Amino acid sequence: FEKGGLEESFIPPDELENVARGKRYLFLQKPILSLRFYGFNVMSGPSNNKKLRKAVNFGIDKRAIISEIHKNQFNLAKSILPPGMPGYDPKRDFYPYNEKRAEKQLNEAGYRKEQPLQVWSASRSEAAQKELNEVQSQLNRVGIPTTVHFETDWPTYESMLRANKAPVFIYAWYADFPDPDNFLGTLFHSKSRYNYTAYHNPEVDRLLDKARAERDYMKRMEMYRKIEEIVLDDAPIVPMVNHLFQMVYQPYVRGIEVSALGGPYIPMKKIWLKKE
User: Which of 63, 169, 180, 250 has a CA 20 to 30 Å removed from the CA of 116?
Assistant: First the structure.
């Protein structure tokens, strides 16, 4: 890219600050309707313990991970619905980092430390390994031992998730369209094929079905806020980060329009090049 062989490029974390401050290239950044999270298999093993799942939520310092490891290439996720999504509540913050609250939940869980949590990742990138090592260290401090495992073949990884063979796993969801059901219904309805946590709450299913049929917009959004509150309290996931669209372009690239749905939805037919 710097030699002029490409019109656009991803930005390595260590280069982000320089690119953002520089004037040589066109830097674009926009929040995306997305969520990356750590999911729990709530069916069996130690991760079926709600208080243990809450302890993990309280025990991970997400802000430090985003700042120190990812160099602020993500936004901090405090809920399931990302900022900009209808139904998003900016005041919602169920699990701020708090070691004492993590230890309290852990004690109440009756967790036996000889059962380490297996954490699975499909990425073995340098950043992913650094994050996992830091998560492992943070959880160990509050008394939760973990082991880290990788399966970089995506079809195999997804098959593991469908078979509920990963006690804890990293997964991300990007909005197909800007509606809260695309997150809450897709990830947490018991009949959804993407409910990899095997989460099943009859009240959540009932409210999701009701919200899908509701025509009053405000009533519908209120239902989704209630659904999110119930799911967060059940803690089948650790909301980790919301993604940012971050790309750098040559200065002669024109007409780039980025929506909250991210790169796949950029209207390429509107882009043109103006070389001097």
Answer: 63
Rounded mean pLDDT, 105-118:
90
User: Tell me: domain 31-242, CATH 3.40.718.10, correct?
Assistant: no
C-alpha pair distances (Å), 65 with each of 59, 95, 132: 12, 15, 10
pLDDT at position 264 is: 87
Q: What is the pLDDT of residues 4-56, one digit of tens each?
A: 999 999 988 888 888 988 889 999 999 999 999 999 999 988 999 999 999 99
pLDDT at residue number 17: 86
Question: What pLDDT, in 10s, does the model give residues 62-83?
Answer: 999 999 999 899 999 999 999 9
Confidence at residue 251, expressed as pLDDT on a 0 to 100 scale: 93
The DSSP annotation for the chain comes to: -TTSS-SEE---GGGHHHHHH-SSSEEEEEE-SEEEEEEE--SSSGGG-HHHHHHHHHH--HHHIIIIISTT-EEEP-SSSPTTSTT--TT--S----HHHHHHHHHHHT--TTSPEEEEES---HHHHHHHHHHHHHHHHTT--EEEEE---HHHHHHHHHTT--SEEEEEEE-SSS-THHHHHHHHSTT-TT-TT----HHHHHHHHHHHH---HHHHHHHHHHHHHHHHHH-SEEEEEEEEEEEEE-TTEE-----TT-GGG--GGG-EE---
Segment 196-221 shows an average pLDDT of 98
Domain ranges of the chain: 8-28+245-273, 31-242
